[in-house]
Specification:
The structure is a single chain. By secondary structure, this protein is mainly beta. It has six helices and 90 strands. The strands form 25 sheets. Strands 2, 5, 6, 9, 10 and 11 form a six-stranded mixed beta sheet that branches. Strands 20, 23, 26, 27 and 30 form a five-stranded mixed beta sheet that branches. Strands 28-36-35-31-32 form a five-stranded mixed beta sheet. InterPro entries: FN3_dom, FN3_sf, Ig-like_dom, Ig-like_dom_sf, Ig-like_fold, Ig_I-set, Ig_sub, Ig_sub2. It holds the Pfam family ig. Keywords: Disulfide bond, Immunoglobulin domain, Membrane, Repeat, Signal, Transmembrane, Transmembrane helix.
């Protein structure tokens, strides 16, 4: 009992500490006495080779420092400075050094009752008593022992555990374990053989003792059982080993504990154990019977469980019983929060009450402590009144702050409750976070924290948009435990926004802000069928619309979960799956439900007790009757009766009657003669036809007159015959043997002409009339006859002989065209004489085609016989056609009329061809196209329409007279639809469509370019559209060039031309000069410059060029004149024959050579002169 008392104190103290932490919500900066937050259990076991540690932690303001903790053992203070006890720096936790090295006996020095005191100058909190005990270790007792027992006798083998506490006992066996119904463990741990059997001979077994705290175990003696089979006990009545009858001396158990009742009995054969409550019923849901009836456990005992429980052991010999009377007591406890001491904060001058009114059986006694000191040992206070169950403090002063402990005790335990009285003043301090954001769903209730601490307690009001809403409809400030909340009921969208709550007391005020977002409620739509055919699979899908993610989706049937997730599937559906299903969708802010009803249905079950009876007056009249089968969750919509006969189509079931009203349970039918019937019935619902009912007996009808054939007709296959045909009479309609057909015919219009009759044996179904005139009417009768009788004369049918080629051609054929409708013409003709068509006049055929076409490609329009004009449509404008008309019957078309040639008026042009994107960039597209292939009208302009796909409102239309167009001012990296139409004077033609995309925005890409310099020119060539996916083209370009002297020039801008290769030639350059060239590429995004350097070539000097100089021409002319003069002088001298002085001559020559040349005589002509 002591052990359980200690454990319960631990549980109660631990629970109480948790509750203390939640009593008052106080800001950490507010001064307050300490509270114990953590302590060791009420019993701590010292285990060999393990450190012994005791826990004590407290919270307060100021914080409890290391010196604020005091430990006592058995009422005496522990010296925490001696060194053998180590205290944690930030708490009162202590560790006993060296205990991990001590054995069991050495640890007994530490046994005792410990208690921790925590002080911070305002008050002292104490823990409950902590009992330190040494965890005894089982002593191994491994020895071999022999046991002897007589076959059929009982045997009890004890397990000696030396009275150790906190142990478990189990039994192990070598080899096969005996039947647990016959061999079981008693409440004291003994192994009990209800009866020993021969197979137990040599059985080896032993008990194992395990300490629950140290988890160490030891084996007891190992027993070997020897069975004496010389004088077996054959039968023996039950003997209850435990429990001993305790009716007079009741067993005391404690409220809230578990009660375990064990009944062990011996006997042969093995007794059957049963427990019963003698004066009441078993507690519903709190009891369990196990171990073959030997063990009953009742959990969480209540006072009403104090009853008498009886165990009965029975076998074939007799029954015996033993009872246990149980009384329920209880440890001290507080059934209501208001019965225990509660923390209180109060301002000076006020009064407080501290209550301690515990419950228990017997009634507990109470004892008061203040700061861990018995109240009677503290100084007397005039403002304090003390009773056993309450303390009242009046006219509080700050020094009255303290921690009060109430100790409640009875013979079954002790519980300590403590609370502080904190006397202080404080302005309001927010306990809730500022700027919190709350979310709630429309039509729900939301609570938003607006807690403040203050002493005295502050008054709290809340507002929205400057308006006080604290007491408005749907708004209120509520208290939940120690927390104040702004509560809004029936939340609407208008409630979203910023809220401000203000707290005021006599020492100040404070406020907090928070916001509320209002979400739409979660909605659920269940998609799926409301029915399924048995055996099939059906799925439902929950389509959830929520402004927050769905945390959980659960499907229920009859409130039992069946699946999770947005999809729920039922495989192999059965009738038991029919019913209503609920899907629950939970989000962080709300929970919604959806419902769907499923019906599992199938084809109807076969009708039952289907039979028939005959009519006395007519053997062909029968009455059918039946009982419906199960509908299988789908209403029957009709019945049908089928029959099978064994003469004409044996084994084939045919319909006798269908579409029988589902409300009928009987019906009458007239059968055919000369048939050997048997019948069956089927039912139908929306799923399908049922399996057939059981088949009836066979029934044969007598012979009768046959039925006449149906489908009689007369038609010719050539102008000189008529073939009479009919449908063969079914076997069951022949109504007797020897069926044949009597075929009669005569020319129509002459009622006095004789009938021609010919017999035709079944199964033939045709007769040919030869040598007829083309397309003449005949009257026809086909009558059935069998060996028993002749059928009634049927109705007469009109037929015709074969058709021939028409003898007439339509005249006066005309074709009219329409300028306003160039694709239509009106063809007219004169009506013909129908008698000349020589067949059934079906009407007229209009043949037509284009004059350029092969006549085999002609087209035909058919008209009824009463029509003499019709429109021919879908012609091409501005095209020559021919037309002719002919009549036709079912077999032949007559001769065509003479062709009429017409040309349709000019119309809208055809579709432009080869619409091509030649060039594009980020803001423009350059397009080209060809003329329409069809020459339906002269093109006067082209219409270009462009815009984003599927956005006709933003399309732009422009006109052009050329077969090219640049679409400008587009958005970069955007798809466009471009449509081009040709227009003539008659209107707009069909469109050619191109979808493309502009490039992303960017300056032109860099391209390689080549320079081909001459002496005064340089040709620059580059590729405008390299094959690169990210290439950015240019719209235009120009070239800047600088010579060695820094002179800069620039070419005029030039548009990029069609084609990839672009070039430009720069003229007027200086020969043999280095130039810097810059190719500048331009588009809407900006320019790109590409630099290069090249030198012009040297100038070539030639005679041709030199001779063109003026000074050279003048010089040559002068030289020629001089030469001519010299020649004249020479010839004159020679002609005179005169003598002259050599010296004179030589001197003249010398003088010429020695004279200096004038400036004008220098130059190349000198050499020419000297050479001459």
């Amino acid at each position: 009992m002591e052990m359980w008392t200690i454990v319960m104190i631990s549980l109660v103290l631990t629970l109480q500490i948790d509750k203390i932490a939640a009593k008052l919500e106080v800001p950490p900066e507010v001064p307050r006495p300490p509270q114990i937050t953590t302590q060791s259990a009420s019993t701590v076991y010292a285990v060999e080779e393990s450190l012994l540690e005791l826990k004590c932690e407290a919270d307060g303001q100021p914080k409890v420092d290391q010196d604020g903790y005091i430990w006592k053992k058995d009422g005496e203070s522990l010296d925490l400075t001696a060194g053998d006890i180590v205290q944690s720096e930030n708490s009162g936790n202590i560790t006993f050094s060296g205990t991990d090295l001590l054995k069991e006996e050495e640890l007994r020095h530490y046994e005792g009752i410990y208690q921790c005191f925590a002080s911070n100058g305002i008050g002292t909190a104490v823990t409950g008593n902590i009992a330190v005990k040494v965890a005894a270790t089982p002593s191994p007792n491994r020895q071999d022992k022999d046991l002897s027992a007589v076959e059929g006798a009982s045997l009890t083998v004890p397990c000696d555990h030396e009275g150790l506490e906190g142990i478990t006992v189990s039994w192990d066996f070598e080899g096969t374990k005996p039947d647990e119904r016959r061999v079981g463990q008693a409440a004291d741990g003994s192994l009990v053989f209800s009866n020993v059997i021969a197979e137990d001979d040599g059985l080896e077994f032993w008990c194992q003792i395990k300490k629950r705290v140290s988890r160490r175990s030891a084996d007891g003696p190992h027993y070997t059982l020897n069975v004496d089979r010389s004088n077996p006990v054959t039968s023996r009545g039950p003997d209850i080993v435990s429990p001993v009858n305790r009716i007079a001396n009741p067993v005391e158990v404690l409220l809230g504990d578990d009660l375990v009742l064990e009944c062990t009995a011996t006997g042969s054969p093995t007794p059957i154990i049963n427990w019963e409550v003698m004066n009441g019923d078993w507690p519903q849901g709190r009891y369990k019977i196990e171990d073959f009836g030997r063990k009953v456990t009742i959990t969480n005992l209540t006072y009403v469980d104090g009853k008498t429980y009886q165990c009965t052991a029975s076998n074939d010999v007799e029954s015996v019983s033993s009872g246990v009377r149980v009384t329920v007591k209880s440890r001290p406890f507080f059934s209501l929060e208001s019965q225990k001491p509660l923390d209180v904060i109060q301002v000076p001058g006020k009064s407080v009450n501290i209550t301690c009114d515990p419950s228990g059986l017997p009634k507990p006694t109470t004892k008061w402590l203040v700061n861990g000191v018995p109240i009677e040992e503290t100084p007397t206070m005039e403002n304090r009144k003390v009773t056993s169950n309450w303390i009242k403090l009046k006219n509080l002063k700050k020094e009255d702050s303290a921690v009060y402990q109430c100790i409640a005790s009875n013979p079954y335990g002790t519980v300590i409750e403590q609370a502080y009285v904190n006397v202080l003043t404080s302005p309001p301090i927010p306990l809730s976070s500022n700027a919190d954001n709350y979310k709630s769903v429309e039509r729900s209730t939301v609570k938003m924290n607006c807690s403040f601490f203050g002493s005295s307690p502050p008054k709290v009001t809340c507002s929205k948009g400057g308006v006080d809403i604290s007491s408005m409809d749907r708004f209120s400030i509520v208290k939940h435990k120690q927390t104040k909340q702004l509560k809004i009921e029936g939340v609407t969208r208008d409630d979203a926004g910023l809220y401000t709550c203000v707290a005021v007391n006599e020492y100040g005020n404070s406020s907090i802000d928070f916001t509320l977002d209002v979400l739409k409620p979660t909605s659920i739509k269940i998609v799926g069928p409301d029915s399924v055919i048995k055996g099939n699979t059906v799925s439902f899908r929950a389509v959830v619309k929520a402004e927050s993610a769905a945390d959980e989706v659960v499907w229920y049937r009859s409130e039992v979960p069946k699946g999770r997730g947005e999809t729920f599937t039922i495989s192999d559906a059965d009738y038991s799956d029919s019913g209503t299903y609920k899907v629950s969708v939970s989000t962080k802010y709300d929970k919604s439900w959806g419902y769907v009803t499923l019906t599992v249905k199938d084809r109807p079950s076969p009708p039952e007790r289907f039979n028939f009876s005959t009519n006395k007056d007519s053997k062909l009249d029968v009455n059918f009757n039946w009982t419906p089968g199960a509908e299988n969750n789908d209403e029957i919509t009709e019945y049908k009766i089928e029959f099978e006969e064994d003469n004409f189509e044996p084994g084939t079931w045919q319909v006798l009657r269908d579409s029988i009203n589902p409300s009928l349970r009987s019906t009458s039918e007239v059968l055919s003669p000369y048939v050997n019937y048997k019948f069956r019935l089927l039912a139908r619902n929306s799923v399908g036809w049922s399996d057939p009912s059981a088949e009836t007996r066979r029934y044969s009808t007598p012979e009768g007159a046959p039925k006449n054939p149906t489908g009689v007709r007369g038609e010719g296959t050539s102008p000189n015959n008529m073939i009479i045909t009919w449908s063969r009479v079914r076997g069951i309609d022949q109504n007797g043997p020897g069926l044949e057909y009597l075929v009669s015919y005569r020319k129509a219009g002459n009622g006095s002409s004789a009938w021609n009759t010919a017999p035709v044996e079944d199964p033939l179904t045709s007769y040919t009339v030869e040598n007829t005139e083309p397309y003449k009417p005949y009257e026809i009768i086909v009558q059935s006859k069998n060996d028993f009788d002749v059928a009634d004369v049927p109705e007469m049918v009109r037929g015709y002989s074969g058709e021939d080629v028409p003898l007439v051609t339509p005249n006066n054929v005309k074709v009219k065209t329409f300028d306003e409708a160039p694709r239509h013409v009106l063809v007219s003709w004169e009506a013909v004489d129908p008698t000349l068509v020589r067949g059934r006049f079906l009407g007229y055929k209009i043949f037509y085609g284009m004059s350029s076409d092969n006549e085999a490609d002609e087209k035909v329009v058919e008209c009824k016989p009463n029509v003499t004009e019709t429109y021919v449509s879908n012609l091409f404008p501005n095209t020559q056609y021919w037309f002719s008309v002919a009549v036709y019957n079912r077999m032949y078309t007559g001769n065509k009329s003479e062709k009429k040639i017409v040309t349709t008026p000019e119309g809208a042009p055809g579709r432009p061809t080869s619409l091509t994107l030649k060039r594009r960039n980020a803001t423009s597209l350059f397009l080209t196209w060809n003329k329409p292939k069809e020459n339906w009208g002269k093109v006067v302009m082209y219409v270009v329409t462009y815009g984003p796909p599927k956005d006709p409102e933003n399309e732009i239309t422009e006109n052009t007279g050329e077969q090219k167009f640049t679409v400008k001012n587009l958005n970069p990296d955007t798809y466009y639809n471009i449509r081009v139409k040709a227009r003539s004077r008659q209107g707009m033609g069909e469109e050619e469509v191109l979808q493309t995309r502009t490039l992303r925005s960017g300056i032109p890409s860099t391209v390689p370019f080549s320079l081909d310099p001459g002496s005064t020119t340089t040709n620059i060539t580059w590729i405008s559209s390299p094959d690169k996916p990210d290439f950015m083209p240019a719209n235009s370009f120009y070239v800047k060039y600088v010579d060695g002297n820094g002179n800069e020039n620039q070419t005029p801008p030039k548009d990029v031309e069609d084609g990839d290769k672009q070039s430009i030639t720069i003229e007027g350059l200086e020969p043999d000069t280095e130039y810097k060239f810059v190719l500048v590429l331009v588009n809407g995004a900006g320019p790109t410059e590409i630099h290069s350097t090249a030198s012009t070539e040297e100038a070539a000097v030639t005679s041709g060029s030199f001779a063109t100089e003026i000074w050279f021409i003048v010089l040559m002319c002068l030289l020629g004149v001089v030469i001519i003069l010299l020649l004249v002088v020479c010839f004159v001298r020679k002609g005179k024959g005169g003598k002259y002085s050599v010296a004179e001559k030589e001197g003249r020559l010398f003088d010429a050579e020695s004279q200096p040349m004038t400036k004008e005589e220098t130059g190349e002509y000198k050499s020419v002169y000297l050479k001459f």
